[in-house]
Amino acid sequence: MSTIELASPSREVPATPTVSVDFYAVTEAVDLDAPIIAEDGTQDAIDQSTQVQSPLPPLGNKRRALIAMATALLVVGSAIGAVLMATRPSDEVTHDVSVGASANNLGVCYDTFEASIPGKLDEHFRRIKERFVGVRTFTLAGKARNPIDVAAENNLSIYAGVWVKGNLDGLADMQAALDGARRHPQAIKAIMVGNEELQDQTNTEDQLIAKVRQMKQMLKAGGVTNVKVGSVQTDGSWLWARKLAAECDVVGVNIYPFFGGSPVSISNPIQDLAYRYNNITDRYGKGKVVLTETGWPTGGQPFNGHVPGIPMAKKYLNDVIQWVKQGNGGDMPTYFMFHDNVNKNPSFEKAFGVAWANAYWKFQFNTTTGVTGDEA
User: Fold this and answer.
1) At what angle do helices 269-284 and 310-325 cross, to 10 degrees?
2) What is the distance of C-alpha 260 from the center of its chain?
3) Are 177 and 160 in contact (CB under 8 A)?
4) Among residues 225, 139, 231, 153, which one has the least CA distance to residue 182?
5) Which long-range contacts (CB under 8 A, 24 or more apart) does 312-316 make?
6) Helix (H, G, I), strand (E, B) or coil at 144
7) Is the separation of the CB atoms in 112 and 138 below 8 Å?
8) What CATH number should be reported for the domain whose range is 107-355?
9) Please, what is the end-to-end C-alpha distance for the chain in angstroms?
10) Cross-strand partners of 199
11) Could you tell me where the DSSP H helices lie in the chain?
């Protein structure tokens, strides 16, 4: 999820896009069968002072109208009032849940906004291990511990994030990724450079290519040769970002039916997810693409007909689990997200967690069999 404003280092997980686009209409205007064109050149980092930057795609009239409409709806929703977010009592009984070892089982996205507190990362990763096989982080540096180390200690696989949005050089995260890769290469699914910059228009495609190459060069210079490097962008961005995809070992795609523009995104969100995901795998291949974010909020204000709440959140998670069990989503797709961040706005942004802000599960589920009961 993304925001136009540059996030602070302690709040690296951005807000969800507030533009609802009819993906089905967009794909009709895009040649999905066009070949992927690899960029010639070395794997060395690009000198951005001399590299010719390709312009970002301009906003069309339809997209501008959608932005205006979405903004107006958010203003109205805010005027009505924010929904208070509930948290589970501290004496809740936790339930250990066995999770299978299939590579197609789910991981979960982890917002490290509390990871500077000593012990929090360890506590949260132990809880994550109860129900998921891995994690995806958005940053690595500046925490009490390197998340790669903590993931490895808990036998969790990790998509390790490097934050490069806007003017950030990402060097601290890159160094943390290299350090973690030297110690635990087997724990890393891939190092993911960037998150939704193309949609947010904070970075050009060429700038992201330079960062991907820089990360690869650092790994090679550090003697790490068996760790993949990729990038995470929205499905809409990957429809045209072929040069970036050609540079990546892994194409991470974020897809949210909750922000979709088609009727089926409301009536049957999993169908919307499957359609949009298949469009990306048709373009880049199933072996290269992984679903890096999807989710449904348990509370907050509605968005363009999409209604948050526990019932739909449970249904959508269960549908995603079953969809992944059928072999979809790539190598360890990651669900958004582990626990609520009550500091985010608008109100639905606070509630995408499958756990409350205090890290207690909101309801019973198992990433092998699905949602199994009422609230935990």
Assistant:
1) 40
2) 16
3) yes
4) 225
5) 312/269, 313/354, 313/362, 314/363, 314/365, 314/371, 315/371, 316/257, 316/269, 316/270
6) coil
7) yes
8) 3.20.20.80
9) 27
10) none
11) 23-28, 61-80, 120-129, 147-153, 171-183, 197-200, 205-221, 235-238, 242-247, 264-267, 269-284, 310-325
C-alpha of 356 from chain center: 19
Tell me which residue of 139, 221, 135 sits closest to 182, measured CA to CA: 221
Both tokens assigned to 195: 């998150």
Q: Which amino acid, residue 58?
A: P
Q: In the Cβ-directed half-sphere of 207, how many Cα atoms lie within 13 Å?
A: 20
| Amino acid occupying residue 317 | L
Name 289's bridge partners.
Answer: 251
Query: How far is the CA of 44 from the CAs of 58, 129, 350, 354, in angstroms?
Result: 29, 37, 40, 40
Rg of the chain over all Cα atoms, to the nearest angstrom: 19
Which residues, in sequence order, are bridge partners of residue 137? Answer: 110
Tell me if residue 353 falls in helix, strand or coil. coil
Tokens of 201: 């228009």
At a CB cut-off of 8 Å and minimum separation 6, what does 33 contact?
none
The pLDDT profile of the chain, 376 residues, written as one tens digit per residue, is 643 222 222 323 334 343 334 433 444 344 434 433 333 332 233 222 222 233 333 333 333 333 333 333 332 333 323 333 334 444 343 333 222 333 358 999 999 999 999 999 999 999 999 999 999 999 999 999 999 999 999 999 999 999 999 989 999 999 999 999 999 999 999 999 999 999 999 999 999 999 999 999 999 999 999 999 999 999 999 999 999 999 999 999 999 999 999 999 999 999 999 999 999 999 999 999 999 999 999 999 999 999 999 999 999 999 999 999 999 999 999 999 999 999 999 999 999 999 999 999 999 998 877 776 666 5
Cα–Cα distances in angstroms (integers) from residue 225 to residues 149, 151, 185, 189, in the given order = 19, 20, 9, 13
